[in-house]
Structures are given as structure tokens and as C-alpha cells.
Amino acid sequence: MEFPDLGKHCSEKTCKQLDFLPVKCDACKQDFCKDHFTYAAHKCPFAFQKDVHVPVCPLCNTPIPVKKGQIPDVVVGDHIDRDCDSHPGKKKEKIFTYRCSKEGCKKKEMLQMVCAQCHGNFCIQHRHPLDHSCRHGSRPTIKAGCSPMTVSESRPLGDFLTLAPGGLAQRLGCWFTRLM
């Protein structure tokens, strides 16, 4: 051997290969061959100090700064507990914000349902003009979708309307008269 001091053996326990161009790990300060110089290849115990990745909050998608020596999972957890804007436990956005204008009704809806005649906001149960006793101007409103003809004027179904239980047929009377 002409150069006995040239090269170094790989510090990996299973390798120990003589390498003439060894790479020194900047975290653990040991020499490694080309196959084991990465942090993952030699399972470097100090890799978290040098292998810098910027973690991103999974809730608000903002990058979280991590100082050297800190564990990223702990820092992200602290961010979620203190600084995160979209933390599910911090503030709840109200979904049902539109309150019914019908007197005595306390229901709230997700969507605004405005009456075209009186411009009041109503819940699903009171959205139709007849359900909230809507009076546009001085004349009462007629049934939605019906002609101005009253149910009593429709004689072909007069007997049916009086015999039907619960008044359902009276509500649907205008639809039956249209079909005939």
C-alpha cells in the first residue's frame, strides 16, 4: 500500500467500507460512504436539528417557524392551541342566522327566505304569504298558484272538498279545479 492514511472507513456499523472520498455528517460529525451519508441512511440521531423542514398547520395552512432543536410536532401543536385562526374549538361560526319574522316564531334558518310582498324574512314553515298572514297593502293575499276564483265557486269538486278530512282538499282545491 502506497497511501496507508488515505481514506476512512464508513461509520455505519453494518458497512465499514473503506472510502477514499468520505462524507462527514454535519449533524453527528461522523464519516460515511456514498451509500450512508444521508440522515435517513445512517439513522442520524441529530437529524432533527439539521434537517430543516417547515411544517404547515393542517387547519389554517400557514407555515410554522421552528427553531433549531425544537420538535416540529410540538411546535405545530402549540400553534393549534394558541395561534391558529381556524381552530374548531375556538370560535363557532353561526350557521342559522336568519330569524323568522312571524310573531311568536323563534325559528332560525340557514338561508334567507324573503316574502316578495311584505319583504319580511320567514322560516320554512311560514314562508308562504298565507302561512304568515301576509297583507300586501290593504287586500289579503290569495293562495299561491291559484286563480282569484275561490274554492266555493268551483262546484264540480264542492262535495269532495267538504267530505275530505283535515281540510287538505280545501288547500289543494285550486289545483283540482285547474285539472278539470
UniProtKB/TrEMBL annotation:
Answer yes or no on keyword Transferase: no
Q: Which UniProt keywords apply?
A: Metal-binding, Repeat, Zinc, Zinc-finger
Q: Name one GO molecular function term.
A: zinc ion binding
GO cellular component terms, A-Z: endoplasmic reticulum
Q: Tell me yes or no: is Protein biosynthesis among this UniProt entry's keywords.
A: no
> What's a GO biological-process term for it?
protein targeting to ER
Q: Please, which domain of life does this record's source organism belong to?
A: Eukaryota
Which SUPFAM superfamilies does this chain map to? AN1-like Zinc finger
- Pfam families found in the cross-reference section: zf-AN1 (PF01428), zf-C2H2_ZFAND2 (PF25403)
**Gene3D superfamilies documented for this protein:** AN1-like Zinc finger (4.10.1110.10)
Q: Where is the AN1-type domain?
A: 4-52, 94-142
Coiled-coil segments on the chain, per record: none
- Residues crossing the lipid bilayer are none
State the protein's name: AN1-type domain-containing protein
Protein species of origin: Pan paniscus (Pygmy chimpanzee)
Lineage summary? Eukaryota, Metazoa, Chordata, Craniata, Vertebrata
